[in-house]
Amino acid sequence: MKRLYIAAITLFLVPIFAMGFISLVDQDATVSATENRNLKEKPSLTFQTLFDGSFAKDFEEYYSDTFPFRDAFMNVNQGVRSLFTWKGEDDVTIVDPGQIDHIGAGEHLQDGDLPDSSSSESSSSSPSSSSAPSSSANASSESASSQEEASSPVEVPDDTEVDNHGGVIIVKDRAMELFSLNEKKLTSYTDTLNKMKTQLPSSTRVFNLLAPTSVEFYSPSKYHSLTQSQKGAFDLAYSQLQDVIPVDAYSAIAPHTDEYLYFRTDHHWTARGAYYAYTAFAKQAGFTPVDINDFETGQIDDFVGSLYRATQAQVLKDNPDYVEYFLPNVENEGKYFKSQDMTDGITIHAVATKVNSSNKYLCFISGDTLLSRFTTGVKNGKSILVIKESYGNAFVPWLLNHYENVYVCDPRQGTINIPSFVRDNNVDDVLAINYAFSACSGFNKYIDKCLD
């Protein structure tokens, strides 16, 4: 019996010590081929990071990302998960990826993610300094757009401390997350916006834009019973607003669903999808939107996004997206800041034409940062503050055509005092832009901590 105990203990401890030893001596991977993303780098230990708890959190994420044989274990996990995948008719697959984070922590470009200054739109640029894309790039963009008309876009979000809203539906080569309305959290969201309005100067206009996701437009009609109406959720939210101006992006997007409005492998909308939402905002804000055909455009190829990472579906990996971009028509200079006083700014790009990161969506305003400012050549004295998660990133560049100062805050990245910021910077308009899942998943708690 004693030998049996020794054998059992040995079988238990030897793999643990072996894995620990391997993790100490092996070379850390920097990219996951399975997930198509950059892995967490080893964090630096300082007194500040040690005592504020961030080192422990970052080290846990780093070790999780660089665990020995991680990709092999993930492939095994995907094989097990495939047993819980339901294959329906018409090339439709329903996947349960587990609990999905509908708000997320956000992501921004790191050093080296931009190839060089000549390969992206200058942060202090004019339309004349931007080179037009080659005819071949335009041709591939047109052919890809026409190809999109025959198939369907995507959606999978982000949320911390959130309920599991169900699975992801994959229709041919397009993935979409199934939406579920949480009325209590949606009401908390609108309550926060109403509270924010009361704390701002009476002259400051506050807008709310709720962005629909691709499941509203591209899931086959017979599968609509698997999801709830985002349009109904938006109508409910807008009915609860008090002195906050609703922006009906849904109705502006719906007539254009034969265009490339949503990614197939990622949960975001494209710049083109964001454009139609921008036209709805322009209508409410009282200005004329710039015609989409007046912009120099191009594309970044080989983008496989968040829905692939959530499902690991091979059909998504085999059919990557591209990121269509539109270069701003006005001179602009962008910087992001780590605090409200906006000192020691770091240069960012409204639109980058090349991105080394596997997350090509980061080409828009360099991703998610606490506070950024774009100063433009519009020179009309008008300013706007955009409060957003990542859905706002593709939207912000369109605003550069109408405001002298465009401020952007992602409250997931830290805290600013929104009322004092608006007063100190003479902000005319405040726009809260969120997509359906984050509005129903507690995003308001990030805004709440930025209010008085």
TrEMBL record:
Residues 102-164 are annotated as: Disordered. Residues 117-153 have a biased composition (Low complexity). InterPro entries: DHHW. Pfam families: DHHW (PF14286). It comes from the Bacteria. This is AlgX/AlgJ SGNH hydrolase-like domain-containing protein. The lineage of its organism: Bacteria, Bacillati, Bacillota, Clostridia, Eubacteriales.
